[in-house]
Inverse folding.
């Protein structure tokens, strides 16, 4: 009976983590679109420069939310390494996204918005595991209180 309880708690915790992951990603996407629009339309910045600036802002929001809220990783010692790896993953995901959308539109014949939707779903799925297993991975003694004499 104890095993069932532990399994249920883990499963429930994973659902909450997945919900936090989706909310964090949605928030970063909203920031991306808002900054892109604001810079281009209100500040009259060239749209490609706005794209880069919006990406950087969204990346910062995403990193902070994923690290501290989604994966509850409060460790500060590894922050620079995590930020660099997170940024590399984001850049790789951007390349994957462009490639997938191109392939789906040009060779499969789907509408570009459907291609973007499919690609985004794939990247969100893949990224969740990359973040959990590599970037914000819990260390063996993390969260354990060690009593010293």
């Amino acid at each position: 009976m104890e095993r069932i309880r532990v399994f249920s708690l883990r499963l429930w915790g994973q659902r909450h983590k997945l919900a936090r992951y989706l909310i964090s990603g949605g928030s970063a996407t909203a920031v991306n679109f808002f900054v892109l629009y604001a810079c281009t339309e209100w500040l009259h910045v060239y749209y490609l420069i706005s794209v880069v600036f919006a990406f950087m802002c969204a990346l910062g929001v995403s990193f902070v939310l994923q690290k501290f809220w989604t994966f509850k990783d409060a460790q500060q010692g590894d922050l620079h390494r995590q930020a660099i790896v997170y940024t590399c993953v984001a850049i790789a995901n951007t390349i994957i996204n462009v490639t997938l959308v191109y392939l789906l539109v040009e060779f499969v014949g789907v509408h570009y918005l459907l291609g973007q939707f499919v690609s985004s779903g794939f990247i969100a799925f893949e990224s969740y595991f990359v973040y959990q297993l590599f970037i914000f991975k819990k260390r063996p003694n993390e969260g354990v209180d060690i009593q010293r004499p």
About this structure: Residues 75-138 form one domain. The chain has two domains: 1-72, 75-138. The longest helix spans residues 2-42. DSSP finds four helices and no strands in the chain.
